[in-house]
Amino acid sequence: MELTESYTLPVSQQRTWEALNDTEILRASIPGCESIEADGENAFALSMSAAVGPVKARFKGRMLLTDINAPQAYTIVFEGQGGVAGFGKGDAHVTLEPEGPESTRLTYTANAQVGGKLAQIGSRLVDGAARKLAGEFFRRFNAQVTGEGDTAAAADSAAPEETAPTDGADPESGAHRTKTQTKRKKSWTAWISKS
Question: In a 3-state reduction of DSSP, which class is residue 141?
Fold first, then answer.
């Protein structure tokens, strides 16, 4: 599988480069990423959950940065194991070009191979999942480098829709409600929010 795409980011080339080498920004940007930690010089250990069609798995892997030409380009060599789901390995060449003082064009070409159950589900499904994952990564990465990441995180953790507590306690009176009363409260709240 080969994937080539370009994105324009509204930050300087230097800021983009720094963000691409910041493990906290990468962890927040990679969908399903559970951890990313330095694992030697220019190497990172990574653990993430991913779903490709019907195959869902937790992957553990490693990324190694090679051909580093800061702040213009590098190559990421990666491999990951997902147990019975299979494996993935490959590389991605990333280039950064300034498009003005506060704009950077990021282009990458990735080549990957998958094996195990992942290889059995078909290349179109794998390609589609890879494109979706890349699109989500760059949406999150853009939010992180522009400082909108905190706002997005706040929106994601905003107060949940007002529903009755699951333990049946009425917060206003301190009384205990039955399941039927709790269900009615949830239905009533849903009906009000639709109006």
Answer: helix
- Whole-angstrom distance, CA of residue 148 vs CA of residue 162: 26
pLDDT at 58: 93
Structure tokens at 64: 């190694």
Strands lying side by side in the sheet with 73-81: 2-9, 104-115, 87-98, 73-81, 55-69, 43-52, 33-38
Helix 123-145 crosses helix 13-20 at what angle (to 10 degrees)? 120
Q: What is the Cα Rg of the chain in Å?
A: 22
CATH 3.30.530.20 fits 2-156, yes or no: yes
Q: How many residues does the chain have?
A: 195
Q: Which residue has the tokens 């929010």?
A: 193
Mean pLDDT on 51-58: 86
What percent of the chain shows pLDDT beyond 70? Answer: 76
Cα separation, 195 vs 191, in Å, equals 7
- pLDDT tens digit string along 83-96? 989 999 999 999 99
Which two tokens mark 67? 């051909």
Give the count of beta carbons closer than 10 Å to the beta carbon of residue 26: 20
Q: What is the pLDDT of residue 149?
A: 62
For the chain, give every domain's residue range: 2-156, 163-195
Do 130 and 30 contact (CB within 8 A), yes or no? no
